[in-house]
Each structure stands twice: as structure tokens, then as C-alpha cells.
Design goal:
Layout: H1 10-16, H2 25-33, E1 105-107, E2 118-119, H3 120-131, E3 141-143, E4 150-155, H4 162-165, H5 177-181, H6 183-187, H7 196-199, H8 204-211, E5 227-228, H9 239-244, E6 247-252, E7 255-256, E8 261-262, H10 265-270, E9 271-273, H11 278-286, H12 313-318, H13 331-343, E10 353-354, E11 378-389, E12 393-403, E13 408-413, E14 420-422, H14 425-428, H15 432-435, H16 442-452, E15 457-461, H17 464-471, E16 473-474, E17 478-480, H18 481-484, H19 497-505, H20 520-537, E18 548-550, H21 551-556, E19 571-576, H22 579-582, E20 590-594, H23 597-609, E21 624-628, H24 631-635, H25 655-675, E22 680-685, H26 692-710, H27 722-735, E23 737-744
Parallel strand pairs: 2-6, 4-21, 4-22, 10-16, 11-15, 15-17, 19-20, 19-21
Antiparallel strand pairs: 1-3, 5-6, 6-23, 7-8, 9-18, 11-12, 11-14, 12-13, 22-23
Helix pairs in contact: 19-20, 23-25, 26-27
Length: 745
């Protein structure tokens, strides 16, 4: 590039992408050489003077560096509504006037660089920055955030980015009978476009805009940048939103692309991580391994008996445990399961034993000291080490058991029947010399265990199914620490015992991993202490809920506008149904139940402004209101349960019905905006994209996994191949794409 040439800026690119474009390099070059004949605006390709950005004799546009202006001349830039960020002429009225003085505002500069996707947590951070102790957002600018007095967040599932860029047709809602007569034929045409007989009633330009618009029309060259809203370019149903908000933000829902999961957008907005001091944040950066449990400073202990944590039958089945007969409640169920065990070589003839328990009721103990964590039960923590034997099987080589007090009950080396091909010394710590004098065999250990494990005994362990497989033993009362402390990213992932010990016990174990091997007694005691800690702290200890708190509780600790301590800010929840039950633990000062979106609007009015008589919500209302509109979500079928055989396309309402519902929802949002007092932050977010294709595929995957365990490939009702796996990943990425809007009134 020559020295006088200048690169185009984001502001200029944003203007270009307000026009329909294929977003490809070839199309961009072609549009520069041959302007789009379908362009609706004669100014869509601005004229350039030869001194700055001229056109050569071949019709190509040349981009060059602006020359220095003569000191005695003043060049006025011509306003172009397609080039975002340019200075408008003083005679042109702006859509959003720039606030004066210290009036608060949220603004986005066209030249602002965004390095990552905007997430729901970013919307929450903006809220906490304006009302509490949150950090300043990096994705937009907030002027005089201390002057923002209230905040309202509207959760509107059902809104999608495709409604704004033309991928989802939203024809103008029919308002009279004459229009209704011609609607039946138009509804049968894709995207709600009229057929050839009605095209004569439309301008050729309107038809071209609807039919020829590519799927990526209106998209920014940078996927992280927001899209500028314009009434002229949106369906009539969305005009109220364009009149309120300047930009549409593409907001990414929380999830896990690797395992094709989308997490709750409601939970992501209404709960936040515990705030950390600057010293804590710096210490966490330099810390290796698992970080200390963040919820410990704010936790209230709830003493819980150990019987609360015994795994259910479904948990055991879902984690590849061989079930004890006592877990099966009916005789028919037992017979069917025994047949399955016979097919898997897991019965007595194959060396398996079941502990001597006829029914689960035999374990009940009613007479024990009040407040006892063990509830009168015997508790044993077990850990085994294995080696690899001939045939590719794992065989028991060591077993260690400790009781509730940490006393060693059993620690034995075991000699496998089959020849050992790999001692796995770096992990098991077992060597040929250690096993050479050993004569104890697996049946010897099983005999001792059958006398040790009574109906009142609870077995603890980490991924205990592997240990019981090596022992060829079943027991009905199991507590597995890999299930007790769920992985931060959810199942099927499981945290290692080493990681759990470091995070929750501040203890380093398995230091000999990869060298001298593990110490099974040390591992068994770590499992025991993790379970004991859970009993002392409560069921939610160690879960993601324990590391997060309700946003309403956090706002209650917020300082006053003048910096005064302990003032706090009250919140309200407005939702369909009975939010006082669903959100009972959130700590909102008020919950308002509704039966329609129109009632939600009135509920928001009560929460923000207060009841006229002050009967429930005092005058002046609350500082923070969260509300949800559900009618659009219900119409689109987003709140229905997944089905492996359900087709998603037939569930869609027709274009005009959808457009009418979107128009009603947008009107409700506008009504909420109009009732807000000045200096109020309004945030609207959809949460996700369409979740139904993802839910359907996950249901297919679930059915496949269940059938694959017990059926042959040709007998499966559904198939799961790499094609379905790739489709699942694509649908997960689509489902995580939501939208959001932000404005200060």
C-alpha cells in the first residue's frame, strides 16, 4: 500500500454492512466495481472526491490517505445514514440525543474494539456496575453510572437475531378485513412474500428487498460488534424496539460447545459469583491447580445426615454401577436385571458376590443421637489399586478401607489369578517385588467384606464403580464423591480426587502420581473427609450454587448513592405463575405473579413506581426489577419438552401469527420503557436462540445411549453417527446465539 493510502475504519465498514451483502470478498470487490442495482438508497455508495477516495478510469474505487486540509478552508462532511460513526450535520436530528451535563447514558463508539462475544454475564456486570460494586464494562461506555437510580431487566425468550436481519419473515400484521382476504395465498409463500398476482401491488424495490436479501444482510464484518437498528430496515413489528434502542447486541448464552450444552440464561442473569478483592484476584492468578472454594466466606453451615447423600438407583445405573438386588423393588424387575447380569458375566458363576441384604428397609435405624451426622450408620471409605492382566482386564492388587474416624480397617495386597502384563506402578504403586510373597486372593477379600459390610453400612469412594468392578461385589448403599461434587461444567465430566482435595480440603494428595504411585489409604481418607465436609456444610456445598449468590442478595449489600454503607437496594421479580415459589431462595423483596404479558407490564409498573396506595410495594418502588415475557416463547413452542421424534419445522406458527406476536411483545417492551422514571437502565435479553433442534438431538442421543446398552445395532430405534454428532454441535452453537438491548431513559 502506498504511503498516502489509508485503511478504512470500522465506522465506514459498519455503514457498508447496513446494506444487503453476501459478506464474501468476491462480492465486496464486485460491489465496488459495479454498484448494486437493487440498492434502495442512491447514497448507499457515497461519492468520493479525487483528492481523497476517487474512482479511476476502470471504475474501481481507490482508497487513499486524506490530504491535509487548507487552513483557510473548512470541509463539511456530508451525512450518510449508512456510514455509522460519521458526524451528522447540525440540521440533521439525531435519533438519540447526546445527554448533557452529568445525565447517565450507555454509548457504543463505532471505532470501539470488542475482543470477545458479549455474554449474559456482561449484561449482569453492567447492571452491577450501575447499582452495586461491579467492575466497569469493556464492551460499551457508561457515562455517569452513579446517577443511574433504577434498573429493569426484561427476559424475552423467543426473540431472535433472524427477525432483525431477514432470516425469519415478519410480514406486517393484517389490520383490516380487506387485507385478510389476500392473506391466505401470501401465507403459503416462503417468508410471507405475496405471489406473482400480488406483486403488481408492491413496488419492484420492495419485492427485491424481501426476496433477494441474503441471509447475512445487515451483519457487521466483525461478529462481536453490535448491529445498528434502523426503522427503515426493520419489519413493522420491530419498529418499537428501533425507536427505543440504538443497537442490537448479539449476546451469547452460557454453555459448553465441547459437550453441546446450553446453560440456563435465567440462572446466568439472576446469580453472580461472589465478589473478590483485588488481592484475592491477584493471588488467584498466580495460583496453580484448583482455586480455593470461593463460597467459604459467605457460607452458612447446614448439618446434614450422611443418608441424604446415598446414591439413587438412577444415579447408580447412569454411572455404570452393577446394581444390588435389594435396590430393585419388584420381583419382575429383579428377574429382568439378573438376566442382564448373566449376559454381562456379572453373576455368582463368574465370581461376583452381593452383600447380605434382602431389602432396603433392613438398614433403617431409628434410635441414634440427635444431630448425628452418621444417623447411626456404619461408614467405610474404600480405595483400590489395580493392575492389567492377561486378556486386557483390570484386576485387584490392593484394597484399603478406613472407618468414619479415619482408622484403617483393612489394607491388603491381593494376588490376581491371571498373569500380570502391566503393574501400572506409576499409578498403583504396586511392583513385582511387592506382590511376590502375597498369597491373598480375591475370594479371600470378598469373604472378609461380606462379614464387614452389614445392612447398615454405607460405602464411600471416588468413582467407586471401578473399585466394585475389581472386587466383583455389589452393595446398595453407595456415596460416590465424583457425583457428590459435580464437575463445574456438568456431567458427563467428573472431577479428579486430587482436584477435589486441593479445592475443598486444601490438601495435596497423589504426589507420587506418575512416579511411585498413589497411596490408597491417603485416597480413602480424602474421600472420607470430602463426605464429612459435605455433611457439615450442607447439600449445596461444593456445587456451583455455593460459589454464586442471588443478584438480589448482592444488591442488598450495595452502598448508597452517596457512598454510605449498608443501605442496600431492594429488588422485585415479575413472572408468570407463582414466582414466590419458584424464586423463594432468591431474596427478592417482592414477587408479583401474572397470567399474561399484559399483566407483566402492570407488574413492572407496580415494582418500579410502587402501588398507588403503598399496600404492598411502597411508593417509589424498588431499585431493581427482573421480569419475563412468555407469550412469544409459548407461541413458538420453546417451552415444550424435548422429543426424539418431534419435527421442529411443523411447530412453527405461520409468518403473520408470529409477526403479530412479535409486535405485541415489542409493544409491551415499549410500554415498559415509557413508564420508567428518568435515569433508569433498561436491559432486554432473549437468553438463547431456538433451543428445540438441540433439545431434539439430545433426546435422540439419550435414547440411543440407553438402547445401545441392551440392543443390537439393527434393533435400535434411533441411530447416532458422526453426522448426528456434528449436527448436535452446530445446533448447540446456534442455540447459544441470543440478542440483547441496552438503554438508559
Amino acid at each position: 500500500m502506498a504511503q498516502n493510502d489509508r485503511k478504512r475504519k470500522h465506522a465506514q465498514y459498519e455503514g457498508d454492512y447496513d446494506q444487503p451483502s453476501s459478506m464474501s470478498l468476491a462480492a465486496t470487490l464486485a460491489s465496488l466495481k459495479h454498484p448494486d442495482p437493487w440498492t434502495n438508497d442512491s447514497k448507499s455508495i457515497p461519492e468520493r472526491d479525487n483528492g481523497g477516495r476517487g474512482s479511476d478510469e476502470n471504475g474501481w474505487t481507490k482508497v487513499s490517505r486524506n490530504r491535509r486540509r487548507p487552513p483557510n478552508k473548512r470541509r463539511k462532511r456530508r451525512h450518510d445514514d449508512n456510514e455509522a460513526g460519521r458526524v451528522e450535520s447540525q440540521t440533521q436530528t439525531q435519533k438519540h440525543d447526546t445527554p448533557k451535563g452529568n445525565y447517565p447514558a450507555v454509548t457504543y463508539a463505532a471505532l470501539h474494539t470488542i475482543q470477545a462475544s458479549t455474554k449474559i454475564s456482561d449484561l449482569q456486570s453492567l447492571l452491577l456496575y450501575c447499582l452495586a460494586d461491579g467492575q466497569a464494562p469493556q464492551w460499551l461506555s457508561v457515562r455517569h453510572h452513579g446517577q443511574i437510580r433504577k434498573a429493569v431487566v426484561l427476559f424475552v425468550p423467543g426473540l431472535e437475531a433472524g427477525m432483525f436481519d431477514g432470516q425469519i419473515a415478519l410480514p406486517d400484521p393484517i389490520s383490516d378485513a380487506a387485507s385478510a382476504e389476500g392473506a391466505s395465498e401470501a401465507d403459503a409463500i416462503p417468508n410471507g412474500i405475496a405471489n406473482a398476482q400480488n406483486e403488481s401491488q408492491l413496488s419492484s424495490q420492495q419485492v427485491r428487498n424481501e426476496v433477494l436479501r441474503p441471509p447475512t444482510a445487515g451483519m457487521s464484518p466483525d461478529d462481536f460488534l453490535p448491529l445498528r437498528l434502523s426503522v427503515d430496515k426493520l419489519p413493522a413489528s420491530l419498529h418499537p424496539l428501533a425507536e427505543i434502542f440504538e443497537h442490537l447486541w448479539r449476546v451469547k448464552a452460557p454453555g459448553d460447545d465441547k459437550y453441546s450444552k446450553v446453560f440456563s440464561p435465567l440462572h446466568a442473569m439472576l446469580t453472580s459469583s461472589f465478589p473478590k478483592s483485588r488481592d484475592e484476584r491477584e493471588a488467584a492468578k498466580s495460583m496453580k491447580g484448583a482455586k480455593p472454594f470461593a463460597g467459604s466466606k459467605h457460607w452458612e453451615n447446614v448439618l446434614t445426615p450422611i443418608t441424604t447423600f446415598v446414591s439413587s438407583k438412577d444415579d447408580l445405573l447412569g454411572n455404570e454401577y452393577v446394581l444390588h438386588p435389594a435396590v430393585l423393588t419388584t420381583e419382575a424387575e429383579r428377574e429382568n436385571y439378573i438376566a442382564q447380569r448373566q449376559g454381562a458375566n456379572q453373576v455368582a458363576e463368574d465370581g461376583w458376590v452381593d452383600t447380605k441384604i434382602d431389602k432396603l428397609e433392613d438398614a433403617e435405624i431409628n434410635d441414634y443421637p440427635k444431630g448425628s451426622l452418621t444417623a447411626g450408620r456404619s461408614v467405610l471409605a474404600i480405595d483400590c489399586e489395580m493392575c492389567l492382566v492377561k486378556g486386557g482386564e483390570f484386576a485387584l492388587t490392593r484394597i484399603s478401607i478406613v472407618d468414619w474416624d479415619g482408622t484403617v480397617v483393612m489394607d491388603e495386597l491381593v494376588k490376581p489369578f491371571k498373569a500380570i502384563i502391566d503393574y501400572l506402578t506409576p499409578y498403583s504403586g504396586i511392583s513385582p517385588a511387592a506382590l511376590a510373597p502375597i498369597t491373598t486372593t480375591l475370594p479371600d477379600i470378598q469373604t472378609r467384606l461380606l462379614s464387614l459390610l452389614t445392612p447398615s453400612t454405607i460405602l464411600l469412594g471416588h468413582s467407586l464403580n471401578s473399585d466394585l468392578q475389581a472386587l466383583k461385589l455389589t452393595h446398595p448403599f453407595i456415596i460416590d464423591t465424583s457425583l457428590l461434587y459435580p464437575h463445574p461444567r456438568g456431567p458427563p465430566l467428573k472431577s479428579s480426587l486430587k482436584w477435589l482435595s486441593q479445592k475443598y480440603l486444601s490438601r495435596e494428595i497423589q504426589r507420587g502420581h506418575g512416579a511411585t504411585g498413589h497411596d490408597s489409604i491417603e485416597d480413602a481418607r480424602a474421600c472420607l473427609d470430602l463426605v464429612r465436609l459435605k455433611c457439615e456444610k450442607g447439600p449445596k456445598w461444593g456445587s456451583m450454587d455455593a460459589e454464586r449468590e442471588s443478584i438480589f442478595k448482592r444488591l442488598l449489600r450495595a452502598d448508597g448513592p452517596d457512598g454510605s454503607k449498608g443501605i442496600g437496594k431492594k429488588g422485585a421479580i415479575v413472572d408468570h405463575g407463582a414466582p414466590e415459589k419458584q424464586f423463594a431462595q432468591m431474596g427478592a423483596a417482592y414477587t408479583i405473579g401474572c397470567s399474561s404479558d399484559a399483566e407483566v407490564v402492570q407488574g413492572v409498573r407496580r415494582a418500579v413506581l410502587g402501588d398507588e396506595d403503598g399496600s404492598i410495594v411502597p411508593g417509589g418502588g424498588v431499585d431493581f426489577t427482573w421480569a419475563r415475557f412468555r407469550e412469544l416463547e409459548t407461541l413458538r413452542g420453546w417451552n415444550r419438552g424435548p422429543s426424539a421424534s418431534a419435527a421442529t419445522s411443523s411447530d412453527q406458527p405461520d409468518a403473520r401469527t408470529l409477526s403479530a406476536a412479535v409486535a405485541a411483545t415489542a409493544a409491551h417492551i415499549k410500554t415498559v420503557f415509557e413508564l420508567l422514571p428518568p435515569c433508569t437502565l433498561l436491559v432486554v435479553y432473549s437468553g438463547t436462540g431456538d433451543p428445540r433442534p438441540l433439545a431434539r438431538l439430545r433426546e435422540v442421543q439419550r435414547v440411543f445411549r440407553e438402547e445401545y446398552k441392551v440392543k443390537k445395532w439393527d434393533e435400535l430405534s434411533v441411530k447416532w453417527t458422526d453426522d448426528e454428532e456434528q449436527e448436535l454441535r452446530r445446533e448447540c452453537a446456534r442455540a447459544r446465539k441470543g440478542v440483547g438491548f441496552v438503554v438508559v431513559k
